[in-house]
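COMPLEX REQUEST
Ligand: flavin-adenine dinucleotide
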Amino acid sequence: MKTYDAIVIGGGHNGLTTAAYLAKAGKSVLLLERRHVLGGAAVSEEIFPGYTFSACSYVVSLLRPNVIRELELPRFGLQILPLETTFNPLLDGRYLLRGKDPETTYRSLAKFSKKDAETAPLFSQAMAELSRMVKPIIDGPAPDPASFKPKDLFSLLRLGRIFKDAGEDFVAAQVKMMTMSAVDFLSEWFEAEQLISPMSASGIIGTFLGVRSPGTAYVLLHHYMGEIDGSFRAWGLPKGGTGAISMAIAKSAQHFGAEIRTNAGVSKVLLEGDKAVGVVLENGDELRAKTVISGCDPRRTFLGFVGEKSLDGDFVKQIKRYKMRGSSGKVNLALDRLPSFKSLPGDGPHLKGDITFAPSIDFLEKAYDDAKYGAFSRRPFMNIVFPSVTDPSVAPAGKHVMSIFVQYAPYHLKEGPEAWPSQKEAFGDAVCNMVEELAPGFKSSILHRHILTPWDLEKEYGLTEGNIFHGELSIEQLAFFRPASGFARYRTPIRNLWLCGSGAHPGGGVMAGPGWLCAKTMLEEGAV
Amino acid sequence: MGYPSPFHERMVALNETWKYKDWAGIVSPCRFIENHVYEYTAFRQATGLLDVSPLYKYEITGKDAGAFISYVTSRDVTKMKPGRVTYLCWCDDHGKVIDDGTVTRLDEQTFRMTAADPQYAWLLGYSSGFDLKIDDISRTMAALALQGPTSRDVLKSCSDLGELKFFGSVAAKLAGKKVRISRTGYTGDLGYEVWCDWNDGVAVWDACMQAGKAYGIVAAGLDALDMARIEAGFILLGVDYFSALHVTVPEKKSSPYEIGLDGTVELDRDPFVGQKALRAAREKGSERALVGLELDWPELEAMYSEHDMAPALSSMASRESLPIYLDGGQVGRVSSSSWSPTLKKYLAIGSVRRELSAVGTVLEVEHTVMFERRTVHARVVERPFFDPERKRKP
Ligand SMILES: Cc1cc2nc3c(=O)[nH]c(=O)nc-3n(C[C@H](O)[C@H](O)[C@H](O)COP(=O)(O)OP(=O)(O)OC[C@H]3O[C@@H](n4cnc5c(N)ncnc54)[C@H](O)[C@@H]3O)c2cc1C
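STATUS: Structure written out below.
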């Protein structure tokens, strides 16, 4: 039987990235995906004939430019299209439109606050500056503060230097971001709630926190990191859906010689002593490799594939404490026509961008309250895009696809997560009713509806508790804490078992950071 | 400045930016919205609708029309079948390029020619002894380009267009008007150009826009076009080379072999303008050659990060002339460059000493970072940079 240099579990975009980098380095690689399609949460599926949906993730955020270049992704079909405006419809019939051009943004904000309108560009600049400073953190493995290895010391020094050079202001801003709530942080800059509210919403995406919860400010930064990748457009709308990114990475991996199998679910990691030597498939087949790399979330990897018995008790505790608790859902629609928003009727640039519905802080807090008591939000926060407006290839002529990311949809319903299937349609209705309120007549344009609850995300997409990022992106679960302290550098307590998914540093999102850095670390350390 | 194009009223109504430029005396939108990348994206993902009426156009009819065009241009067009289009250039007696354009054969005795500069007088100058008539239709015939992967669908739903091969041309009915549609364009993508009476322009525009709604049509301006044409590796008169008629310095003139138009010169045939000089030029081999270059992005990034900056390259194509060096000496110049959103590479078109033009050659291009002139490595690569299958596919 062939022994591979590496077996990668899971064909999400991170697993694929690790496979591609290892194959490019000349290693023999086998990647195993449980589903019939590749991509994991970055997947395109033709759920209804003629309509291609980005079933889960829908915008590319921060796809690392070096990965795009080194894996030659444009050559294998990657195209990222502009998604530049942000439209915020309000319940009182007014709206905000940002990002089209500076004057439109200014005038739109000035309706609510002249001061905010002038402050907004300065805020963007400050955020871009801040993200440029922290960029090295996402473009390198997490430093290990407890380690005395020269390499770790070096990266700590490097970080230290970044902070030192940046001066006190920067450190103060950084500390604030890490500890404050999104609303408090934004309120230091802005006064108009109509602006603060949708901006703060970026801080809660994928978390089971409210916009007033401490620590949510930090996630805002991620949004500005895209800007520093400038013309590379690491932020945008993937042509053909987010699955096209995964497929481009897969083609690159195959080009470099990686072997990829779908419909090949792994049931466990094969251990010999404390060493991983391969995997056992769900059908019982055994496959052997010198290293095994999991692109699945930490919970599934350690408590599922490895098993508590083979792990140290402390580590098991850390993994159990690691917060998954999914809080989001998705409604994908095929539409006969585009909706016309009450606040800004007709077609226009606002339909080519991102539409964030977060009309007030109280509204978001109420949505969160529902979730705290184990129910989905009756009136949810929504992030909407219409990919077909810019990329007509995803829908039949004149028809459209609509992607609605919804929060909150807590995995843990008060009736228990297994109650989700019985609440799924009601959840879909709540979302569609919310849109109808903003765009009367919208419901009659729906041709097909596809709903994803956290339960579906877990059962179909393998995301434990439906967490979209393989674990919350909250401060105590980032960098050297991700997924567990002492194991933030892709290594695991099991020899030759590595972690390359979003549950590893630098975390979730379609950025391929963990996949790339895992492969890089393995290669540098001669582990494969 | 500026006379209105046939689509002027429609374009002005759509243009939110007030950014226009003079293209052959006609007011032409640079862009319709602030972010021209959306317009560029339409060329590559949907359909970009672009006014190309400012092009100069000539209709040449008569028994000798074919022989005449073959005499004044770089190609023998007498063998062309009606309904075909060809791309060519024309030169002065010294074999230096005056202009480039397309020639369409409508029927046995009718041809149409496009040019970037006015060429009526020049054409007329050679026409004595030929049985033909030259009509300057530059400002009586409108032209509208529909470029992008859905352009075929758009035209099929608003005209009686059937199958049309790459570089084919056919008479058609659009919006009840008599038009001609050719499968040509300047974006290097699947695309068409609709040629119609100047006065029918608005009706044609409206019909295309209406039909295009279902296919993501977007009005596009010249800024988007510039990016697309660089990806397609096309040269531009007045930017990448200069007309022999308008420059006085011999060095500024170019033979077709120096600007990548080798393929358009059919040398071994009946005498034609510039033939002797071109033959000599071919034998001697040109000193310069046109190249496609790809700038080393990691190096650019490193240069910017020395100043603690992200690479601050404009999203607009540049027509700035930049020196190309090798080992400290100048060996050529870049004439056009652009970030390619599709290829995610920084591309340039330039001219270098022929012995340095082989694919894979590594040169250095000037690049200014923080007001400091530096150089960045650039590799010679194949042109077109971007060449999708759909461009040619039946
Ligand atoms: C609804 C939703 C919306 C989102 N929106 C965005 C967004 O707009 N922008 C953004 O940047 N991010 C978004 N995200 C987050 C982003 O999609 C994820 O962080 C990222 O795609 C995760 O990639 P990954 O490769 O780390 O893991 P996954 O994509 O989770 O890959 C893991 C893979 O392992 C497979 N697998 C599971 N079990 C097994 C097994 N036993 N054997 C073999 N294979 C197995 C899975 O099928 C899957 O393919 C969203 C996520 C969701 C769910």
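REMARKS: Chain B has nine helices and 19 strands. The domain at 287-381 of chain B is CATH 2.40.30.110 (Elongation Factor Tu (Ef-tu); domain 3).
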